[in-house]
Amino acid sequence: MKKTVPITTLFLDVGGVLLTNGWDHNARRRAAKHFKLDWDEMEARHSLNFVIYETDKLTLQEYLGWVIFYKKRSFTRAEFWRFMCAQSKPCSEMIELMRQLKVKYGLKIFVLSNEARELNDYRIHKFKLDEFVDVFVSSCLVRLHKPDPAIFRLALDIAVTPAQQIVYIENTPMFVQFADDFGIRGLLHTDYQSTCKKLAALGLNLN
Asked: Which CATH superfamily does the domain covering 9-20+90-201 fall into?
């Protein structure tokens, strides 16, 4: 009988897995409504800038200057930044699950996420992700942006772990498929309970 290869490492997305998405389409919609912005204009300007913003080629202030404050506003940059931060909420059950699995199985935990520097820093420290995540392969730090295959290659190089010993938990189906192409077991996250069952089937459970 073929021996099952044990899982030693988890690759995790952040938005939609450990936390809510930080600055996604829905968050921007809420911002446009709250600050009475022209949605179409704001979104068009965001679309032209978001990849270079998330790969740290624009600072937060530069991004805001191009996307929001290219004309006089009735609110400040500080007010807008506070609103951006307020969109992030924890997926508490998932965070606790990762903490406990790490302790029980001695897992290495990597984060692979598309995050701009300031939001990345805020979210890591606000929700104490650095207490259980070993390495952050964030787009702003490595200047690579999912779905660029190079970000998966880099994470594999840093992990120094055979791909078959890694599970990647992600809520975007295409990115799960990318992981599969590298021999990493991709796990599509839709909710806490189903993810627990999928992990248990791979030998990772808290029972």
From this structure: HAD superfamily/HAD-like (3.40.50.1000)
